[in-house]
Amino acid sequence: MTIQILIITGATILGVLGLIHLIYGLVTNKFEAYDPELTTAMQ
């Protein structure tokens, strides 16, 4: 019983972090550089 709770808790944490990463990557611009010159240089 305890191991099942630990596995579910760990999977939930990873799932939430993955969902946040997906939302930030697709919807917001939080992964873009602040400096426009840096963005141009990376492309």
Give the secondary structure arrangement, pairings included:
Blueprint lengths: L1 H25 L9 H7 L1
Summarize the structure.
The chain is an all-alpha fold. Helices cover 74% and strands 0% of the residues. The model has no long low-confidence stretch (mean pLDDT 92).
Notable traits:
43 residues, mainly alpha, 2 helices, 0% strand
Q: What features would you describe in this structure?
A:
This protein is mostly helical and 43 residues long. It has a domain at 1-28. It is built from two helices and no strands. The model has no long low-confidence stretch (mean pLDDT 92).
* Distinct helical segment count: 2
Q: Spell out the helices and strands N to C.
A: HH
Number of strands: 0
Approximately how much beta-strand content do the residues carry?
Answer: under 5%
Radius of gyration: 17 Å
Largest sheet: none
The general outline is rod-shaped
